[in-house]
Amino acid sequence: MIKVKGFKFSGISAGLKKSNNKDLGLIFSEKKCIAHAIFTQNKVVAAPITIGRKIIKKKSIQSIVVNSGSANACTGEEGIVATNKVLDYIASLTNMKSDNFFPSSTGIIGSQLDYKAINKNIPKLIKSLSDKGYKDFAEAITTTDKFLKISHKRIKIGGNFYNFLGIAKGAGMIHPNMATMLCFFLTDLKFEPQIFKTIINEATKKSFNSISVDGDMSTNDTVIGLSNGMGGDATIKKSHKSLPTVSKAINEIFYELASLIVKDAEGGSKFCRINVSGTKSEKSANIIARKVANSLLFKTALFGSDPNWGRIIAAIGSVNIKYINQHKIDISIGKHFLVKNGIGCKKTKIINQLMKKKDIIININLNSGKHSSYMLTNDIGVKYVKFNSYYTT
Amino acid sequence: MIKVKGFKFSGISAGLKKSNNKDLGLIFSEKKCIAHAIFTQNKVVAAPITIGRKIIKKKSIQSIVVNSGSANACTGEEGIVATNKVLDYIASLTNMKSDNFFPSSTGIIGSQLDYKAINKNIPKLIKSLSDKGYKDFAEAITTTDKFLKISHKRIKIGGNFYNFLGIAKGAGMIHPNMATMLCFFLTDLKFEPQIFKTIINEATKKSFNSISVDGDMSTNDTVIGLSNGMGGDATIKKSHKSLPTVSKAINEIFYELASLIVKDAEGGSKFCRINVSGTKSEKSANIIARKVANSLLFKTALFGSDPNWGRIIAAIGSVNIKYINQHKIDISIGKHFLVKNGIGCKKTKIINQLMKKKDIIININLNSGKHSSYMLTNDIGVKYVKFNSYYTT
Questions:
Q1: Model confidence over B69-98: pLDDT tens digits?
Q2: Residue of A39, A42, A178, A287 to mutate, interface with B, max B Cβ within 10 Å
């Protein structure tokens, strides 16, 4: 049984979803937590993002309240008021301040949040809190997710075990207005706040910011980490000998959750990691990996198991990076080259077989520097188009 | 009958296509022409682009030789040699210099150009030249095009009629390795070279550089204009009173050809113009229009006739333009608002009906400035994915 000391969870239905599935979730820590959050970079943001950005500045949070079924985005002042009504009410029932509660929403853009339905169910939500309730919470935050996304690790530091738990949902803007990627990360290990921030930022960059399902960005994307320090006396500082182990564990949790999001892509059938190396900076490697990951022609080729390197090299060349030299570009699947020095290699049976796998790794080497990066992506098939063609009508 | 004085055309089959359809085209002017060309901005370019970039510097060209069936891209030094062999041979047969001939290729990336097959057919190609042969030429440059793309205008200046003819092919990287957008523009009106360059650049920006089929960029895209001045004595200079008329005509030809390319998109069923206004610069308006035009979620919604404005506003917000204020964004179809001040409007029957049309205009107003731009695009449907999934295997 997964537990994180001092954290309780609940997930119930407040009737926000037509299906009557769970749509309201709560995470509650016995003690105040240090917190760090990363939000969507979209200029159009949902009401809970506007409010959450202010709350997170406090750096001390005790609870997270999440609804699915409505993104509360493009809802104007009325949307802000609605989220505040929920926070105020849950605060009044728990004798706490509203800004101890961090809000998050996911679902349809444009519909007003039914805060009355939520508030009616808040007492039940609080009553349902349990240290074993993480699955109920994970269920309550899903929209079109086909499976729950949970990743957990335990690490021994100085005789004590400390817990790390990540719960995520969604896959970018996959199923359009049912948008949003959310990740809630909890630990009972204590951190020096700046270190916690650095680790969460770095792990997010290498996981949730390195996935591309359809190149679109949601109005509600949020990653938030809470640490309540209730697992024991250890405090992770820059000098702590367990810092690398802890950092690695958090990175692995985030990477696993991000991979699960890509694997759950609506209509997707394949998972692909695109490694780019030999660049003059990590940033330019990431720009190239992102461009290939977002190429519709590449994604459809992936769906068809077609080792169509012409589309990959055309995508590489289309980015605005001056030092790209087409005559130095290598593209391979495993050890098998598709392109060497910018010239196509003979097709082999092995490559055709590798392309048919569910998990594919494509390596791109620009042979122009020592930096590298990667992106995780999925294919785009007929199912994707069908899912995404008829949504709001 | 369309004619441009002094220009002859031919188009034959050299057996480069499996289908044995026409695949080799020639445009030949009796007199030398001033010329201006615009090439793909892809860092990975085909051999004819590398050679064409050098030839165009001369600014005096007499002929264009084009093949379909092979892009001659990612073919290394061997590809350069192949194109030069073609140019040298046609020059030797016509007693001209090789650099009077401008090369262009379109077709599969990675296969070497069969210059022997081409050269075997060059005598026949020259022999077939005719002032009425523009349709043969237009046919020879097609790959997956479903119809020929030709636009023509006549303008009277000082008692004489002058002719303007544009012939184009393709649709971005629509049908993957059968890539490439090509446009050949010919006129018998004389121009001061700098004016000709400015008009061609501006018309290209507002047409071929304002279309997006799938967001990918080909290794071979080329627009070239030739003016032989054989239509009469008029010379278009900055001070010429007919400059606006002439400029307008060329812009209309380019816009028509660009629209035809989008309408011919493989698997596409709809044509959509995205107007963006109220920005602080034309550039930022274009960035936004381009982002929406390239949004896979928007394109699939277009396919499904779904007025899914959440995807449009999320795409707008995702660009890196700081002054975007979500509370000022309006989105409309004709006079009918989908979004007003960033808040969704009630759905109406009229909007659902408008979305079902083949030609759709979507207006986005940021209400933050006086500039505007637009993009022309198509939908992405099930057919697109099917066309693009199984290509090289």
A1: 999 999 999 999 999 999 999 999 999 999
A2: A42
Position A348, amino acid: T
Phi, psi (5° rounding) for residue A108? -75, 135
- Token couple for A174: 């996959």
Q: How far is B185 from chain A (nearest CA, A)?
A: 25
**Catalytic residue selected from A83, A180, A300, A377:** A180
- Chain-chain contact of A43 with B314 (C-beta, under 8 angstroms): no
> Which residues from chain B sit within 8 angstroms of residue A388, using beta carbons?
296-297, 300-301, 304
What's the pTM? 0.86
Residue B23, φ and ψ in degrees, nearest 5: -145, 5
Q: Using alpha carbons only, what angle is made at residue A68 by residues A187 and A213, rounded to the nearest 5 degrees?
A: 80
Question: Average pLDDT in the A31-51 region?
Answer: 93
Nearest CB neighbour to A214, from listed B44, B297, B306: B297
Q: How far is B329 from chain A (nearest CA, A)?
A: 10
User: Does B316 lie at the interface with A, CB-CB under 8 angstroms?
Assistant: yes
> Which residues of B are less than 8 Å from A306 in CB distance?
389-393
Alpha helices in chain B (DSSP H): 47-56, 76-94, 115-127, 134-140, 193-205, 243-263, 282-294, 296-303, 309-317, 349-355, 382-389
Nearest CA in chain B to A341: B76
Distance of alpha carbon A99 from alpha carbon A276, whole angstroms: 42
| Fold agreement (B7-263, B271-389) | no
User: A28, A17, A22: which is closest to A226 by C-alpha?
Assistant: A28
- At the top level of CATH, the class of B7-263 is alpha beta
Calculate how close chain A gets to B289, using CA atoms only, in Å. 14
Specify whether domain B271-389 bears CATH 3.30.460.10.
no
Distance from CA of A327 to the nearest CA of B (A): 7
Please tell me the distance from the alpha carbon of residue B93 to that of residue B71, in angstroms, as a whole number. Answer: 24
Residue A184 identity: F
Cβ distance A324 to A291 under 8 Å? no
Res A393 pLDDT > 50: no
Contact B326 A44 (CB under 8 A): yes
pLDDT given for residue B215 in this prediction? 58
Length of chain B: 393
A293 interaction partners in chain B (CB closer than 8 Å):
none
Domain boundaries in chain A? 7-263, 271-389
Rounded to 10°, the helix A76-94/A115-127 angle is 30
Question: What order of strands is seen across the sheet that includes strand A330-333?
Answer: A211-212, A371-378, A271-279, A359-365, A330-333, A336-340, A343-344
pLDDT tens track for A127-137: 999 999 999 99
> Which pLDDT score is estimated for A143?
87
DSSP per-residue codes, B268-320: ---EEEEEEEEESSHHHHHHHHHHHHH-HHHHHHHHTT---HHHHHHHHHTSS
Closest by CA to A144, choosing from A16, A294, A267, A11, is A267
Nearest alpha carbon to residue A263 among A182, A357, A358, A373: A358
Interface contact flag, B297 A176, Cβ < 8 Å: yes
Neighbours of B359 (CB within 10 A): 10
Q: Which residue of A has its CA nearest to B300?
A: A389
SS3 category, A345? coil
Q: List A residues 144-203 in contact with B (Cβ-Cβ < 8 A).
A: 173, 176-177, 179
**Amino acid residing at B302:** L
Is residue A319 helix, strand or coil? coil
Contact B317 A219 (CB under 8 A): yes
Per-residue model confidence (pLDDT) at position A171: 64
Residues 6+ apart with CB under 8 A from A77: none
